[in-house]
Amino acid sequence: MPKVTIDGHTIEVPDGTTILQAARMIGGDVTPPAMCYYSKLKTSGGYCRTCIVKVTKGSEKDPRPMPKPVASCRTTVMDGMEVQNKTAPDLIDARNGVVEFLLINHPLDCPICDQAGECHLQDLSYENGLSKSRYEFKRREFEKIDIGDKIKLHMTRCILCYRCVKVAEQVCDTRVHGVMNRGDVAEISTYIEKAIDNDFSGNMIDVCPVGALTDRTFRFKSRVWFTKPMDAHRDCSKCCGKAVLYMSGNEVLRVSARKDMWGEVEDAAEGKPGWICNECRFEKKEVKDWTIEGPRAIDRHSVIAQNKYLDKKNLKIDVSNQKQIQEKAHN
Ligand code: SF4
Ligand code: SF4
Question: Which class is 105-215 in CATH?
Answer without folding.
Answer: alpha beta
